[in-house]
Amino acid sequence: MAVLLWLCLLSSARAQCTIRLEDVTANTGITFQHTHGGCGRRYIVESVSAGLALFDYDGDGDVDVYLLNGAPLQGTEVEAPPRNALYRNEGGWRFTDVTDRAGVGDSGFGLGVCVGDYDNDGDADLFLDNYGPNVLYRNRGDGTFTDATREAGVAGGRRVGAGANFLDADRDGDLDLFVSNYLMFTYDTHVARTTRGVPKYPGPRDHAPESNLLYRNNGDGTFTDVSEASGISAHRSWGMGTICCDPDDDGDTDILVANDVAANFLFMNDGTGKFKEVGFLAGMAYDFNGFEHASMGVECGDYNNDGRLDIYVTSYQKELASLYQNLGNGTFEDVTQMTGAGAGTLPYVTWGNGLVDFDNDGDRDIFVACGHIQDTIERYDDTSSYHARNVLLMNTGNGRFVNVSDRAGVGMQVKLSSRGAAFDDLDNDGDVDVVVLNSRREPTILRNDSLPGNHWIQIRLRGTKTNRDGVGARVTVTAGDLTQIDEVHSGRGYQSHYGTRLHFGLGRRDRVDRIEVRWIGGGVDRLENVAVDRLVTITEGTGKQASPPSAQPRAPGLAR
Amino acid sequence: MTASASTSRKTFSRDRRGRVWWLAALAVGCTGVVVFIVIRSLGPTAAESAPREDVLPSGENLVNAERDKAAPAAAAAEPTAASDKPPSVPPEPAAPPPRPSGSRATPSTPTPKTSDVTQLTEEQLRKEAIDAVTRLMKDFPNDPDPIGLMGNVHVGLGQTAEAVACWEKCIEMAPNRVDGYLGIAEVRLKEGQFEKAEELARQAMQVDSRAARANKILGEALLGLGKPNEALVAFQQELKISPNSARSRFLLGQTYRQLGQHLEAKERYEAVLQLDPDYTEAYYVLAIVCARLRLQDEAAEYRKRFQELKDRDWANLQGIRSVFDREESLFSSSRNVARTLTNVGLAYRQHGYAWTAEKHWRRAAILDPEDTVCREELAALYQQNRRTEEALQVCEQLREIAPKNARYHYGAGVLYARMNRVDVALSALEQALELDPDNESYRDTCARIRRTREEK
Asked: CA torsion B212→B216→B221→B225, rounded to 10°?
């Protein structure tokens, strides 16, 4: 009897993990293979790539997939140069390679990517932050892109790029561009490193830090470098993942930069596009104990639904991925240990990350992509491994996270060296799926098969006076006793892009009482009494819904 | 002369000769005793002072001092046990000429130079540590101490699975030893397995409730589990056992900070700086806490000092290693090896092999110019063996390394007094008193020596 009772308890405990992610990579038609471009010389740039983008490039209501690739480095010979790849979402988990047709097969060394309608013509443009010249692809609106880099003036020289973001820094209605740079690398400055005689990649501090760039959009398809005038370039470090958001909720967009082996940056916007670095005073430059981390990716989201955007930063082995709670007065507190938000991450190098409500229960869970930099790590450290399983932390709803990696489906058993991760509803069934870019391998596509029953709502913004995608806008969704916030971001996590369409899980609440949109630049729109389990498009200035039939997702559980 | 008289005379002659021989033997013996007493009163000779060679249970003899000094080539050519010849007793350092009573001894045994250490590769250093512990294990196969030491070596080599296996064996051999539980607990802590670390720390405390490190590990595990209230108790307990642990005090402050008790946290951090003025992270948390308490000026000062120390820390690594190798730097390796050799020496001493212990401590002192543990052991050994001059030289090294440690000044003072160098002795004792003015023992000794000087 006691055994039976124990088994019941055990099964009920296991059933509490409501998130299921299944690996559907093999059947998607995505045949992309990432290359790190190396030949054994172990240049540092090989080890840190790359990100990916999830966005609807052709406006058909499905989220497509864009994957960045490396390029041959000195000493590497290839038959055919590798390139980035764009896969069109055909629905039903089938994707088609449309790279050539779209004209976005850049063969540069891809590191970071962001998406935004920089020319406000109603379609999504693409910016690539490379090692080497950067690339700006302007979307023609017909499923093809053109290289507008030179015209725009954003090539950026021969730097080692990292994360990138479109943002309306000066609140003038068009998207400016923030470009993070990693370090100063040339083949001449390469350093060969070993541990106990085992060759390994050098670290970032073997190279000088780089400054970041800010380009102001001139409104005519060109940009002006305002890095110095804005105060951005005054701070050099080893920049990696970036996100632009409004943590102090003052109506303008600030910039967070995760720096590798150095204090993280928080550039506070004064409202006019001038920035001041306040990471230390804000409490998110270092971890709880005062150590700088080898920070990789940075994400923001309201993990405890207190109306303030919190920050999650991934990092290196023997460092916990860290959750910084927004205290509301421009300051943050590292609450990783108190909340368990770093559980399972200590042995691994962690990269892409997302604060995503996978089970639609109304609070944000955490997904962390893992994989070591050092492909020789097992030869001198048996506590870690080059390939690693990713980590999934479920939000219990009371301020704590539980590691459910072992219980969340076969998709969490994939063991590769992951880098960028992106999250969006790829099958339009009302829950958020996952795409992970793996170094030197095929990506991982995870379909969200979490237990049904919870309600949700997705929101897409259409700016009119402000930028067309509503980048930077703050959205508040109230359903009964639950109030959630989010913002539209361009570029986030580890050098990736996702989430132009906002997703809110609602639990059992079957009605949204109010949606409020605060557009970057000041205007506010409100919708009342909104039905759930649908995509809602909100146009600036109307306060009304605008929902073309093709954009309506089906109710959960129905196939396309 | 009659036969009987003759016999009697012969007998008497024999008896007399016997008595003479007996008396002569007695005289020689007494003379020998007298000579011995006289000689001992003069102090040990160099020959008597020379530590005797240890013949270890394994039959092996250790690498001799000549090979120790010519490290790289000789170490590479170390013979196997089977072919090892008994090492010659190394020449003792010549006793320095008597110094004027007012001058301190120059620490010269041995005077390690950083450049000596840096000529060794990490591979050679690691081999030295492994070889020393392996030899110890071979000499004492039933002693869990060497196995535990090998566990530490494996951790240093990134071989945590092997380390855990060693400690599990320690526990099996000696369930009442805490080292095994704590060794594994620290590994689990570093792996982020906080529940297991907590469980093992508690097991260690069941064996010994006052085990050093146990409460600290328990506290860290509890913090990792998000249980600051319980962690608070653990750190407070740890500080009762190790009140001078800056790290434990820092963690206690962190726990208060997690609980939002910023004033209590600030107090603890400030106490950390009393113990270690260069504790970099303490300045960071003080800056943060002061900012939270709206003490902006203090926050700015702490931030400035934090940045200075951070820049200094990175400058020390610049051009040598990246942060990924922070634990792997040559400096760290030679220090780790020194620590290992010190522990090996302690194990040998426990088994009664003082000479072998001394060799390891001397080597540790070369590898780590700032190691006080091996030097303390050497000083004690020299004092026990009346090698006063050598003991004094080591004490002077300790005084240089840790000038704020009153014990070292006191120890030097006592030794100087034994050598009748009264003025120098008093100077050292007064330094000890200055650092620890409430120490009655220091005060009494000082007074006694002053009286002795006055009587003269």
From this structure: 140
pLDDT attached to residue B18: 58
For B158, which of A202, A342, A380 is closest by C-beta distance? A380
Question: Would you say A174 and A217 are in contact if contact means Cβ atoms under 8 Å apart?
Answer: yes
Distance CA A163, CA A419 (A): 13
Contacts of B28-32 with C-beta under 8 Å, sequence gap 24+, read none
Task: For chain B, say whether A459 makes contact (Cβ under 8 Å).
Answer: no
For residue B123, list chain A residues with Cβ-Cβ distance below 8 A.
196-197
Of the candidates B122, B226, B324, the beta carbon closest to that of A400 is on B226
- From the number of C-beta atoms within 10 Å of its C-beta (0-12, 13-18, 19+), residue A43 rates as buried
pLDDT digits (tens, 9 = 90+) for A56-110: 999 999 999 999 999 999 999 988 999 999 999 999 999 999 999 999 999 999 9
**Distance from chain centroid for Cα A224:** 26
Where would I find the beta strands (DSSP E) of A371-511?
388-389, 391-395, 401-403, 415-416, 418-424, 433-438, 444-448, 455-462, 474-479, 482-487, 502-507
* Residue that is written with structure tokens 């943002």 in the block: A167
Beta-carbon-side half-sphere exposure of residue A173 (alpha carbons within 13 Å): 10
Paired residues of A324 in beta bridges: A311, A334
pLDDT in tens, B316-350: 765 444 444 444 555 567 888 999 999 999 999 99
Give the model's pLDDT for residue A129: 98
Burial class of residue B74 in the structure, from the number of CB atoms within 10 Å of its CB (0-12 exposed, 13-18 middle, 19+ buried): middle
**A433 DSSP 8-state letter:** E
Q: Calculate the CA A159 to chain-centre distance.
A: 22
Are A344 and B192 inside 8 Å of each other by CB?
A: yes
Nearest Cα of chain A lies from the Cα of B291 at a distance, in angstroms, of 8
Nearest CA in chain A to B195: A343
Find the length of chain B: 456
Q: A-B interface: how many C-beta pairs under 8 angstroms?
A: 86
* pLDDT tens, residue by residue, A13-70: 444 789 999 999 999 999 999 999 999 999 999 999 899 999 999 999 999 999 999 9
Alpha carbons within 13 A on the beta-carbon side of B394? 25
Beta bridge partners of A518: A474, A524
- Tell me how far apart the alpha carbons of residues B196 and B238 are, in angstroms, rounded to a whole number: 19
Token pair for residue B145?
Answer: 């101490």
Residues of B in contact with A345 (CB under 8 A): 192
Which candidate in B189, B288, B298 is best for mutational testing of the A interface (most A CBs within 10 A)? B288
Q: How many CB atoms lie within 10 A of CB B280?
A: 17
Measured CA to CA, the distance from residue B236 to residue B216 in angstroms comes to 9
pLDDT tens digits for range A470-517? 999 999 999 999 999 999 999 999 999 999 999 999 999 999 999 999
Span A217-248, pLDDT tens digits: 999 999 999 999 999 999 999 999 999 999 99
User: Which residue, among A199, A206, A166, has the nearest Cα to A182 in the 3D structure?
Assistant: A206
DSSP B175: T
Burial of B402 (0-12, 13-18, 19+ CB in 10 A): middle
Which residue on chain B is closest to A400 by alpha carbon? B226
Chain A residues lying within 8 Å of B158, measured CB to CB: 196, 380-383
State the pairing for strand pair A125-131/A109-116.
antiparallel
Nearest to A294 among B161, B318, B323 (CB): B323
Across the interface, do A383 and B123 touch by the CB < 8 Å criterion? no
d(CA A67, CA A340): 31
* A367 Cα to chain B: minimum distance (Å): 18
